[in-house]
Design a protein that fits this description.
By secondary structure, the chain is mainly alpha-helical. Helices cover 56% and strands 6% of the residues.
Length: 349
């Protein structure tokens, strides 16, 4: 980026945007890897004076077939998870993507800016479509352009994402740069992907070499964000471990996947490093450590699952919150889209 354009970029108002697909089955991994970080950004935004916008990207969920009733339920469940985890609709804008049509409208323009070769290089397209690309939906192929629109319709300057989405934010920068170049304006910001430190990667409670997943056939392999206190404690007590005592240093966990996973979860829930945890628990057997982890997990997670259950019994409350958030989002997105239309030469009444 040239010095001139770099200077212009500083004029963009700092704004954070991120979203999660409402694909159902929120787990501890979703909470530690994304939702809790969103709350941290919200709190930081209040202190530093920037806006935070969080979205249930239900249009992205449709890139594979969705049962309509399930999609509605999953969207509300994700909203409930956001709120129960600490996202405050009075402090952040919270909404579902499909209620803000500017996303899709800008997405079409970006479909015309992005190049086929860019999309074909996306690793998630390759992973999800596999060898059967001819039967994959056009939406699955093109959704990175819609993701770029999700971000740039708010002129978002920062996007908290996992490592697996970094490539898509880099594509967003490519689309913004090409649009700005093609039309001779520095209109869209060069959004920065934000991956702060090592993301908390939560592994299966039954196999420490595999990521904790909602699709695992064993419910005992994961902690669901809807699990009550008894279920959380039971799953931790029954988590797979090994017979050795916990080491005093992280290096001692190198070949012990299950032990490392439980220590990692404890560290994340207690806001400590793994080194700090092992200073306290090194030498303990799992018969001592698991009750400690269970007590901590219940203290942190049970209130979230309780509030999620309450909200899911009050869908009208969820709908009112995300409806208000959608109206707030449109106040930002509509002028950005209108200016985009003017730039590309579209006539508006």
């Amino acid at each position: 980026m040239s010095d001139t354009s770099q200077a212009k970029q500083t004029a963009f108002k700092p704004r954070v945007f991120s979203g999660i697909q409402p694909s159902g089955g929120l787990t501890l991994g979703n909470y530690l890897g994304a939702m809790r970080r969103f709350v941290d950004w919200q709190d930081r935004g209040l202190k530093e004076g920037f806006e935070t916008i969080f979205c249930m990207v239900d249009m992205h969920a449709m890139t594979v077939w969705q049962d309509p009733d399930a999609l509605r339920r999953q969207t509300r469940e994700l909203a409930a998870g956001y709120i129960a985890s600490g996202l405050d609709p009075e402090k952040s804008i919270l909404f579902n993507q499909s209620q803000v049509p500017e996303h899709a409208q800008l997405g079409w323009i970006f479909n015309c800016v992005a190049r086929m070769g860019w999309m074909q290089r996306m690793t998630q397209w390759k992973d999800k479509a596999g060898k059967n690309t001819q039967n994959a939906s056009l939406g699955l192929f093109a959704y990175p352009a819609l993701m770029a629109a999700d971000i740039l319709v708010y002129h978002a300057t920062h996007v908290p994402v996992g490592e697996d989405q970094k490539q898509h934010v880099e594509l967003t920068r490519d689309i913004a740069a090409k649009f700005n170049h093609d039309y001779g304006q520095e209109f869209f910001p060069m959004t920065e992907p934000v991956i702060e430190g090592a993301a908390t990667r939560v592994m299966s409670l039954r196999d420490g070499s595999k990521k904790m997943s909602k699709s695992d056939p064993s419910d005992m392999a994961r902690i669901n964000m809807t699990d009550d206190a008894d279920a959380i404690a039971s799953k931790i007590r029954k988590a797979r471990t090994d017979p050795d005592a916990l080491p005093s240093e992280v290096e001692g966990l190198k070949e012990r996947a299950e032990a490392r996973n439980l220590v990692n979860i404890y560290a994340a829930l207690s806001d400590q490093t793994m080194e700090q945890v092992l200073q306290d628990v090194g030498g303990k057997q799992f018969s001592e450590f698991k009750p400690m982890l269970a007590e901590l997990a219940v203290a942190k997670l049970a209130p979230i699952s309780t509030e999620m259950a309450r909200l899911m019994q009050a869908p009208e409350e969820i709908d009112a919150i995300i409806g208000k958030g959608a109206a707030q989002a449109r106040e930002i997105a509509a002028p950005v889209l209108a200016k985009t239309y003017d730039i590309v030469g579209m006539i508006r009444s």
